[in-house]
Write a structure and sequence with these properties.
Elements (H helix, E strand, L loop, with lengths): L1 H11 L9 E4 L4 H13 L8 E7 L9 H12 L3 E5 L8 H16 L5 E3 L4 H13 L4 H4 L5 E4 L2 E4 L7 H10 L16 H16 L3 H30 L12 E3 L1 H4 L3 H12 L12 H8 L7 E4 L2 E6 L2 E6 L10 E3 L6 E2 L5 E5 L7 E4 L6 E4 L3 E4 H8 L3 H4 L4 E4 L2 E4 L15 E5 L9
Parallel strand pairs: 1-2, 1-4, 2-3, 4-6
Antiparallel strand pairs: 5-6, 7-10, 8-9, 9-10, 11-14, 12-13, 13-19, 14-17, 15-16, 17-18
Pfam families: ATP_bind_3 (PF01171), TilS (PF09179), TilS_C (PF11734)
Family: Belongs to the tRNA(Ile)-lysidine synthase family.
InterPro entries: Lysidine-tRNA-synth_C, Rossmann-like_a/b/a_fold, TilS/TtcA_N, tRNA_Ile_lys_synt, tRNA_Ile_lys_synt_N, tRNA_Ile_lys_synt_subst-bd
Length: 439
């Protein structure tokens, strides 16, 4: 059995044999104990990336305080370094989900470029995940359950035992006389997964002995179907990725017209694909918000609020604004040395091109009623100028205005809102980028 399971593990991990490091998520339970033992044993005969183990301590029960010591002793016997990470679990409607989120946030932080985090989920876990999500009304993406691998941090999360039944892991553990932790919470039927594992699946297995294998196979079929939907979404989004008239604005955006030509189902599929890396997706009932945004009057600027930001529609273009977009200060900022760039708190950078005016300068934000001298046009109302430029409304409140005393001297050129005479100075604004906290 050892050779068969080892060979299966090596075959699954073949694509990542040249990774800089393999980190093993080590809870101390059966699954991760077997995975750790398998890899530590293989490292004696095979050339593998450097191995290390990571134990996440959630602090949710008194019994868990002894688990880091157990994990440390196991790792010392196997010659694998261990890192213990303590996390804070935010209370909420689902303790299971909150603990999982905290755990994977910790995993993300330690997974460097090209590195791999290995977890011990197995075929029974896959079947439970499918039924759990089916009962929650998940779509194809959710019912595809857990993928063998996905992006995590700078590298990949890999589940090399996903095709192995739990019974095979138990046999391996008994054969090698492994000791593991039995989490008391795993028998608490208040948790949905425990209820499925201890009440539902025994009944299903009694009537259909191959139910776990069948459900895992169904998850594979659904994963393949989701792959086809992803390919379709990429095709549909290609037409919507048209250049923005505001290329300097570092926000994800799409042209709306190509999406309008698709059926409702293909619109939702394309948007799910586009929004997945940006926010947690809404459930079916909340997709009515997309219909309202899409069908609003032409001169409207509707907003669809989602878990991690907002989708805006401005001038037949969709713009994604993460929650961090609104996290900046409207307070005035002095600019004593305008020959040097000015960092605006939470709002990017401002700089002068050319020779700026002398005297104390201050950056303020719009209050309404501003006017400015435009070369060749005289004094013009700023609101009207911005309307002419079709600048999206959500940007206007962040637009830095340069004052000398009470006189509005300049508005950022914004890639040519209006022409400036040759040789004159201009004010250039580089808004906050996604790399600076907008993703």
């Amino acid at each position: 059995m050892k050779l068969r399971l080892s060979a299966k593990l090596l075959q699954t991990l073949g694509p990542w044999r040249n990774a800089p490091a393999w980190h093993i998520a080590f809870s101390g339970g059966l699954d991760s104990t077997v995975l750790l033992h398998l890899l530590a044993s293989l490292a004696n005969t095979e050339t593998l990336p450097p191995l290390s183990a990571v134990h996440v301590h959630h602090g949710l029960q008194a019994a868990a305080d002894a688990w880091p010591n157990h994990c440390q002793s196991v790792c010392e016997r196997l010659g694998v370094p261990l890192q213990v990470m303590r996390v804070h679990v935010d209370p909420g409607a689902s303790l299971e989900r909150a603990a999982r989120d905290a755990r994977y946030q910790a995993f993300t932080g330690i997974t460097g470029a090209g590195e791999v985090l290995l977890t011990g989920q197995h075929r029974d876990d896959q079947a439970e995940t499918l039924v759990f999500r089916l009962l929650r009304g998940a779509g194809v993406r959710g019912l595809a359950a857990m993928p063998v691998y996905r992006a995590l941090g700078g590298g990949q999360l890999v589940r090399p035992l996903l095709d192995v039944p739990r019974a095979e892991l138990e046999d391996y553990a008994h054969e090698h006389q492994l000791k593991w932790i039995e989490d008391p919470s795993n028998v608490d039927l208040r948790f949905s997964r425990n209820y499925l594992r201890h009440r539902v699946f025994p009944t299903l297995t009694e009537r259909w002995p191959q139910v776990v294998s069948s459900l895992a196979r169904t998850a594979e079929h659904l994963s393949e179907a989701q792959g086809l939907l992803n390919e379709l979404a990429q095709m549909d989004l290609q037409a919507a990725h048209q250049p923005s008239p505001f290329a300097w604005l570092p926000l994800p955006n799409l042209a709306l017209a190509p999406l309008r030509e698709l059926s409702d189902a293909r619109q939702r599929n394309a948007l799910r694909h586009w929004l997945t890396p940006l926010t947690r997706l809404p459930d079916s009932d909340h997709w009515a918000g997309w219909n309202s945004l899409r069908d609003a009057k032409h001169d409207a600027q509707p907003i669809w609020r989602l878990a991690d930001g907002e989708l805006h529609r401005c001038n037949e273009r969709l713009w994604w604004l993460p929650c961090a977009w609104s996290e900046f200060s409207h307070a005035s900022v002095s600019w004593p040395h305008p020959r040097n760039p000015l960092e605006l708190p939470g709002n990017g950078q401002l700089k002068c091109i050319g020779e700026p005016p002398e005297g104390p300068l201050v950056v303020r934000y719009r209050q309404g009623g501003e006017s400015i001298e435009v070369p060749g046009r005289g004094r013009r109302d700023l609101k009207r100028l911005l309307n002419e430029s079709a600048l999206p409304g959500f940007v206007r409140g962040r637009l830095p205005l340069l004052y000398q005393g009470e006189q509005l001297l300049a508005v950022p050129s914004l890639a040519g809102l209006w022409a400036m005479p040759p040789g004159d100075w201009q004010l250039h604004w580089m808004p906050q980028t996604c790399d600076q906290g907008l993703s």
